[in-house]
């Protein structure tokens, strides 16, 4: 199955009909362009009394099976990574040997990718092409422009993919944050200019399509987090996503304001902060102390940021709750603040973790229980989706990055705001954008691969994934 010069196709192999492991293909004039290559993690299974999770032998890291494009890799013009979240970049070290194409990424994303590739001894084999916001690159028959949007990580980009028969706007993950604190912002004119040029189809994030209103700005979290830290008497541990460099800046400022020293617990947090420094995105005023020193400080002077907000095994917060972290031992009177919301499917693991913390006498503050915001989503709520459709005015809306409910609601929003046609499908469906809009169901085989014992293995079908 090869597109000819009259065809413009979209073919998702991962991330459509689910949240995670994004892998998208665009086809035109005999070639394919891949956008994103991410991982997912198995839905937490039965929790034992000791808090461990039983996955019934599933590989702990999973990704979309790229067999369709791996079998056609001579037609693969390149891979674009829109941003550095695991569900968009995490599978590159595992799958690149099957693809062997150039990889395009922004400065911060490229820094994260290099660190991942180095772990697999691939750093000097993969051609990484660093792009800046606003750049245009010709990649096979696709002319691609990187456009500034905001998200919960530095340097996210939307894409305008131009061909001689039609243009596609690919949003990536985004929100409209007028005060993102770190990295570039966005301009309304960027998107209204696209409308004047003409957008054939808009492929867009659906994660929060069921959420009314507008997402909270990162800048709005300072008050709530400062209040929570001030109210704490002992040590304070904040659990958040390590990729949110803006959140780390906010917490570092709060550390200075409350007389606490901030340290990072967890390899992903340390890697992300290091990448931010290398990419010039770390404020020199935000000093961190070595995590091994945290245990020697008076309790009221400790502000630690830890991985594990989703209750994941082997993360820093899980080890703190179990009492076996090498740097800090929690005591009654300490406080843990969850500056994150549960990803669907993780609720049970998080509740078990919170129960273990409370059993230690630790006070727990969650984003759901806080009166003022202490967490901001990185995805657009309904008002933001409405604004983007009004600005871009595409002929076709293609919701992705969500489960069925999210994508159906997204399609309704698009049609309500003037989009003539919405196509809702799932992984393996072929979205025909040109010459005649339509869909062919399950044209490409899909599935999952897992990384287990140093090799890729098929993940058996029939297991309940989210």
Describe the structure in your own words.
The protein has 466 residues and is of the alpha/beta class. It folds into two domains: 287 residues, Ribonuclease Z/Hydroxyacylglutathione hydrolase-like (Metallo-beta-lactamase, Chain A, 4-Layer Sandwich); 149 residues, Metallo-hydrolase/oxidoreductase (Rossmann fold, 3-Layer(aba) Sandwich). It has twelve helices and 26 strands. The strands form five sheets. It has an eight-stranded mixed sheet with strand order 10-9-8-3-2-1-23-24. A hairpin with a 3-residue loop joins strand 23 and strand 24. The longest helix is centred in the middle third of the chain and has 14 residues. The radius of gyration is 22 Å and the shape is globular. The protein starts with 7 loop residues before the first strand and ends in an 8-residue tail after the last strand. GO terms for molecular function: exonuclease activity; metal ion binding; RNA binding. This is MBL fold metallo-hydrolase. Keywords: Exonuclease, Hydrolase, Metal-binding, Nuclease, RNA-binding, Zinc. InterPro entries: Metallo-B-lactamas (IPR001279), RibonucZ/Hydroxyglut_hydro (IPR036866), RMMBL (IPR011108), RNase_J_2 (IPR042173), RNase_J_b_CASP (IPR055132).
Q: Tally of extended strands? A: 26
Oligomer description: single chain
Low-confidence stretches: 46-54, 462-466
How would you write the strand order of the largest sheet? 10-9-8-3-2-1-23-24
CATH domain fold name of the largest domain: Metallo-beta-lactamase, Chain A
Under the CATH scheme, the architecture of the largest domain is 4-Layer Sandwich
Shape: globular
């Amino acid at each position: 199955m090869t597109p000819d010069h009259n065809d413009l196709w979209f073919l998702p192999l991962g991330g459509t009909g689910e949240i995670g492991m994004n892998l998208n293909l665009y086809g035109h004039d005999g070639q394919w362009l891949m956008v994103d290559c991410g991982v997912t993690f198995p839905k937490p299974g039965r929790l034992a009394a000791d808090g461990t999770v039983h996955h019934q032998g599933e590989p702990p890291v999973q990704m979309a099976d790229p067999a369709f494009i791996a079998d056609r890799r001579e037609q693969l013009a390149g891979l674009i990574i829109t941003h550095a979240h695991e569900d968009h970049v995490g599978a590159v070290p595992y799958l690149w040997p099957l693809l062997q194409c150039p990889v395009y990424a922004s400065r911060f994303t490229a820094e994260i990718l290099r660190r991942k590739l180095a772990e697999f001894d691939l750093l000097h084999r993969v051609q990484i092409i660093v792009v800046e916001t606003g750049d245009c690159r010709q990649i096979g028959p696709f002319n691609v422009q990187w456009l500034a949007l905001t998200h919960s990580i530095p340097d996210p980009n939307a894409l305008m993919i131009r061909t001689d028969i039609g243009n596609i706007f690919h949003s990536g993950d985004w929100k409209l944050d007028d005060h993102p604190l770190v990295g570039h912002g966005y301009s309304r004119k960027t998107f209204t200019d696209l409308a004047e040029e003409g957008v054939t189809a808009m492929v867009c994030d659906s994660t929060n399509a069921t959420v009314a209103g507008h997402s909270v700005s990162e800048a709005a979290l300072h008050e709530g987090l400062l209040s929570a830290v001030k109210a704490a008497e002992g040590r304070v541990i904040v659990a958040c996503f390590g990729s949110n460099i803006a959140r780390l800046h906010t917490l570092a400022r709060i550390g200075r304001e409350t007389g606490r020293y901030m340290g990072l617990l967890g390899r992903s947090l340390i890697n992300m902060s290091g990448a931010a420094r290398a990419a010039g995105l770390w404020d020199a005023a935000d000093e961190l102390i070595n995590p091994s020193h945290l245990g020697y400080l008076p309790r009221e002077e400790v502000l630690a940021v830890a991985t594990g907000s989703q209750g994941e095994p082997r993360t820093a917060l899980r080890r703190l709750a179990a009492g076996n972290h090498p740097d800090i031992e929690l005591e009654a009177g300490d406080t843990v603040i969850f500056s994150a919301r549960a990803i669907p499917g993780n609720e049970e693991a998080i509740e078990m973790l919170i129960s273990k913390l409370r059993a230690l006498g630790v006070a727990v503050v969650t984003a759901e229980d806080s009166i003022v915001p202490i967490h901001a989503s990185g995805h657009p709520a309904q008002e933001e989706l409405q604004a983007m459709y009004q600005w871009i005015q595409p002929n076709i809306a293609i919701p992705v990055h969500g489960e069925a409910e999210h994508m159906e609601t997204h399609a309704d929003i698009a049609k309500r705001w003037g989009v003539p046609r919405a196509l809702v499908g799932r992984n393996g469906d072929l979205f025909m954008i040109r010459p005649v809009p339509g869909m062919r169901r399950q044209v490409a085989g899909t599935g999952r691969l897992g990384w287990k014992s140093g090799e890729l293995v098929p993940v058996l079908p029939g297991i309940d994934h989210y």
